[in-house]
Amino acid sequence: MCMMKWTIIALSVAAGTSQMAMASSQDDAKGFVDDSTLSILTRLEYMNRDFKDGFSNPTNGGKSGYRQDTGAAERIKYSSGFTQGTIGVGVDAYAMGTVKLDGGKGRAGNAQFQVNDDGSEAKTQSAAGGAVKFRVSDTVAKYGNQVVINPVFSTSDSRLLPEIATGTLVTSNEIKGLELNAGHFTALRTQTGQFNDSAGLEAADFASANYQFTPDLVAGIAASNVENNFKKQYLNVNYTLPIVEGQSLNFDLNAYNTKSQGQELSGKVDNNLWSLATAYSLGAHRFTVAYQRSTGDTPYAYGVDGSDTVYVSNSIQMSDFDGAQERSWQGRYDLNLASYGVPGLTFMTRYVYGDNIRTTEGPEGRERELNVEVKYVLQTGPAKDLSFRVRAAYFRANDAYIFAANNNDVGPSNDDIRLIINYPLNIL
What we know:
Blueprint: H1 2-19, E1 37-51, E2 66-79, E3 87-102, E4 124-136, E5 139-146, E6 164-172, E7 178-189, E8 204-214, E9 217-226, E10 230-244, E11 247-260, E12 270-282, E13 285-296, E14 327-336, E15 345-357, E16 365-377, E17 387-397, H2 402-405, E18 413-426
Antiparallel strand pairs: 1-2, 1-18, 2-3, 3-4, 4-5, 5-6, 6-7, 7-8, 8-9, 9-10, 10-11, 11-12, 12-13, 13-14, 14-15, 15-16, 16-17, 17-18
């Protein structure tokens, strides 16, 4: 909590000194109603995970070798403006729900729907919540239910419904180019959870800073304390080197240090994880190579602090390539077909290979994964922004990689196919 208190004091000082220098966002507040937004997101998602080599679906007692379900979700989000004055006040609110369209008892486990005691999936799910927010100058404090995106505390939106965290988040943009964040969260609802504390989080405190040194260079640091689980530190440096018009090189470094603490509810954790990616952009084409290294006695740990809290290059569709002592390499290709007369259509494929994984069996563990993705977004017309996305992943691991073989979401060999249709609509 000392880190949390220090950060809030720093934010307050920055807000006070900056107010005298320039106009702020709060100075331009139009009011609670006039700045309000209301949006609806409709999502349809089909997901199939096919376990290979005789490996059955762990969630259904070995009755089949795959998981498959389809569902539709509706999300309604309201965000008010801020009242005028020195301290602006506003609210955010949401309501969302799902309907299962397909999926049986023997095919459950994709984390799209809550699994009942008898192994069947819930036919419907719903959730609602909100947050109150305050703004002084260019600093916003928000308390309540919210989505959080931070390298040391990040909620996931990979299924029909997003994870939702409950707590306080302070974001300050008082100094040009500098963003400061501080958070204290006491509950996290999973994407299928019906209760705010379904992820098992007791408390998490974090602070982060990102600074845009130049238009081409940005760096950030972050640290978190997840009670009775672990402490985590993070570093990022991202630099883009322009070459000529339409060509550039990008370098992206990400690094974590994670150590368990307290009751070690996430198990014993002692891990350093880092990655370095280099991407060459040439018009519509982007070529990326990346190297990732995991050291320490254990794999990287996350989840209780959000299912997306793994900002490294080789964390892809199925595997994070973060086993104990693992090293991994990635090759990736992206294509934007707007340059070829099809705006809104993109293509991506990547391959990651990992080895040197320390296993309980002794022999070296190895894994590999191939991803292919196609996405199309309508650019005009009444259905503008309607998107269609197909994601395919093919994961394989050797017999020695016990961590992967025992993982309920992966298995030693697994094909993962998803179709995601999103239709966002702005009402206000």
